TrEMBL record:
Domain G-protein coupled receptors family 1 profile residues, every copy: 44-290
Membrane topology: Multi-pass membrane protein
Protein name: Olfactory receptor
Subcellular location: Cell membrane; Membrane
Keyword tags: Cell membrane, G-protein coupled receptor, Membrane, Olfaction, Receptor, Sensory transduction, Transducer, Transmembrane, Transmembrane helix
Family per record: Belongs to the G-protein coupled receptor 1 family.
Gene behind this protein: Or4e1
Organism: Mus musculus (Mouse)
Single annotated GO MF: G protein-coupled receptor activity
UniProt lineage: Eukaryota, Metazoa, Chordata, Craniata, Vertebrata
Domain of life, source organism: Eukaryota
Any one GO CC term of the record: plasma membrane
């Protein structure tokens, strides 16, 4: 009898995504804008990874972590944008329960891993600027590999814990998700049970990670800025440029995470706008900020392009 009840409670086999708009003209405009953003994200980030691998001068801890960031941005954008593009011309915008779970898992895997990576990159800049003579000793390749393994492991554990909490809930209707992709806060609202405890766990997990990492980042950059006051003007200018680029990415990315996951699962009109920046705009900022503001990357890119032309 209990099994029969459980089957009835989990009868939802798919969810309906509301998308960004129901207006055909707006949908068409959104399609082309997202398509352009996605193509530029793929091309820009993949080009960064290839350039860093190709140019031996960029085989340093800073660019090692930057290549990881570019790889994550490609994956993070691919989790949501292709599905959104295909749904533009669909009236129902259905996503199966299993596909929804997979999307949530990889969304949180790449998002949490990127948060940890941005924190590690801030530590790397702190060591490079505040302890330049000890930099290669502290940030040796063994340490870099261990940090990379740790941040990917942490992201995986975080994603598994949130996804497992979500799929254990019973779903018997409604089936409409008020967004253009599946995310834990929107999905658990559809559960046929009290989700108050789950919401607290989400806030204490995702929200706490975002807030703590943001505080650590702000403190680290404050220390860096104080340290830069004692440096010569040329070195100060280059370091400030790097930190400003990093801080821009951090603010936009972690701002979304704090806004979405540091409160109960209630829908706000701003959620979709913030989600657009999170899934489409922020992954594109990485190649723009780290190439246009970085002389080493621009030099390596020009060298790579000239080699290809020959």
């Amino acid at each position: 009898m209990e099994k029969a009840v459980l089957i009835n409670e989990t009868s939802v086999m798919s969810f309906r995504l509301t998308g960004l708009s129901t207006n055909p003209l707006v949908q068409m405009a959104v399609f082309f804008i997202f398509l352009i953003f996605y193509v530029l994200t793929l091309v820009g980030n993949i080009l960064i990874v290839i350039t860093i691998i190709y140019d031996r001068r960029l085989h340093t801890p800073m660019y090692f972590f930057l290549s990881n960031l570019s790889f994550i941005d490609v994956c993070h954008s691919t989790v949501t944008v292709p599905k959104m593009l295909s749904d533009t011309f669909s009236e129902e915008k259905l996503i199966s329960f299993d596909a929804c779970v997979v999307q949530m898992f990889f969304l949180h895997l790449f998002a949490c891993t990127e948060i940890f990576l941005l924190t590690v990159m801030a530590y790397d800049r702190y060591v490079a600027i505040c302890k330049p003579l000890q930099y290669m000793t502290i940030m040796n390749w063994k340490v870099c590999m261990m940090l990379a393994a740790a941040l990917w492991t942490g992201g995986t554990i975080h994603s598994i814990s949130l996804t497992s909490l979500t799929i254990k809930l019973p779903y018997c209707g409604p089936d409409e998700i008020d967004n253009f992709f599946c995310d834990v806060p929107q999905v658990i609202k559809l559960a046929c049970t009290d989700t108050h405890i789950i919401e607290i766990l989400i806030v204490s997990n995702s929200g706490l990670i975002s807030v703590v990492c943001f505080v650590v980042l702000v403190v680290s950059y404050a220390v860096i800025l104080v340290s830069l006051r004692q440096q010569i003007s040329d070195g100060k200018r280059k370091a400030l440029s790097t930190c400003a680029a990093h801080l821009t990415v951090v603010t936009l990315f972690l701002g979304h995470c704090i806004f979405i996951y540091s409160r109960p699962s209630t829908s706000l009109p701003e959620d979709k706008v913030v989600s657009v920046f999170f899934t489409a705009v922020t992954p594109l900022l990485n190649p723009i900020i780290y190439t246009l503001r970085n002389e080493d990357m621009k030099s390596a890119l020009n060298k790579l392009i000239k080699r290809r032309e020959k």
